[in-house]
Design brief:
With about 325 residues, the protein is of the alpha+beta class. It has twelve helices and four strands.
Length: about 325
């Protein structure tokens, strides 16, 4: 019996020594030189895996959604700013046709009254054909409007750095020209401001949801990677490897995945936004194109917009790496 017990003890000790040697060798490879790490020798998390590719696809989709949303918001804000600057310096005089009146004489009289105002920089009366053309995006081209009481339009441009006295012009028109009205476009300016504010809030909400979904996806993927490599992680932890060292292995892996997915999603978004302009040219002259151009402008983000998309790619990649690191560290602390 003592001989059998001694034999079993010796076999157990020999097996423990072999396992310890294998673990020490694995730990040595994991702590290899930067050159070894570059080759991927001894990496805790495999570089190419189904889970990693799936996470890269998720990051690409989230980056695409965030970039397209920010691009659309940038277009709306740019268009709203341009509209506000243009509308704030322009007023419109409308002269409604009345049976038995000389509409051309009334237009000339209203133009003369507007030119007498010291704060008016330019006055441009629209012809009947030009006034009818303004209705084509909504009524369609080629429609005869001879029987409709289409009002005549006079555009009044305000001089810069001068505050207009709209009350004086309105009173003069009411006194001299029957059926004339002055529109200073203040309601349009407030509407454009509300549209821009709503676009910003909506874009921020969507961007926050995208970031939240990305963080949750990375957290689940990190926990899955740790679960599949749990024996190695626990052994490294118990033999004295610092939490920062283990977390750095996962952080580097998920940073690469974040950059890969972000580059794919951001590049796709840039391509889509760049193609929006040529595609919109196919619908030039239609009512939908006119309304879309009024809302989004020329469907062009410019260099600032593309720089913003590139910044979003880097931000999502950084969030991916930091989320992975935080999940690993919190998991290792629970092991203690």
């Amino acid at each position: 019996m003592p001989d059998a017990w001694c034999s079993m003890t010796a076999a157990s000790m020999s097996m423990i020594d072999r396992v310890g040697s294998l673990l020490r060798a694995k730990f040595t490879r994991l702590r290899g030189t930067p050159r070894d790490a570059t080759r991927g020798d001894g990496a805790i998390v495999p570089k190419d895996s189904i889970a990693g590719n799936a996470l890269a696809a998720v990051v690409a989709i989230m980056t695409f959604l965030a970039a397209v949303t920010s691009g659309a918001v940038a277009m709306v804000i740019g268009s709203a700013s341009e509209w506000q600057s243009e509308i704030a310096r322009e007023m419109t005089v409308q002269i409604r046709p009345i049976p038995g009146r000389d509409i051309e004489a009334d237009v000339s009289r209203a133009e003369a009254i507007a030119r007498t105002m010291p704060w008016v920089a330019d006055v441009r009366p629209y012809s009947r054909r030009e006034s009818e053309r303004l209705l084509e995006p909504w009524l369609g081209p080629g429609l005869s409007l001879d029987e409709l009481p289409v009002p005549r339009i006079i555009a009044v441009r305000v001089a810069p750095t001068v505050r207009p006295d709209t009350a004086a012009l309105r009173q003069a028109l009411d006194r001299e020209v029957a059926g004339a009205s002055l529109d200073d476009h203040r309601g349009w300016i407030e509407s454009m401001r509300r549209v821009a504010s709503a676009a910003i809030l909506g874009g921020l909400a969507i961007f926050g949801l995208v970031l939240s979904a990305t963080i949750l996806s990375v957290a689940f993927a990190t926990r899955g990677a740790m679960a599949s490599n749990r024996p190695i992680v626990e052994v490294l932890h118990f033999v004295g490897a610092k939490d920062a060292f283990i977390a750095r292995q996962f952080q580097r892996h998920f940073l690469v995945l974040g950059l890969k997915g972000g580059a794919i999603g951001g590049g796709s978004a840039m391509l889509s936004l760049a193609l929006a302009g040529p595609v919109s040219n196919l619908f030039v002259g239609t009512a939908g194109e006119t309304q879309a151009a009024a809302l989004f402008g020329a469907f062009s983000m410019g260099p600032t917009g593309y720089a913003m998309v590139a910044a979003e790619v880097l931000l999502i990649a950084a969030i991916t790496a930091l989320t992975s690191r935080q999940v690993v560290i919190s998991t290792l602390r629970r092991i203690d």
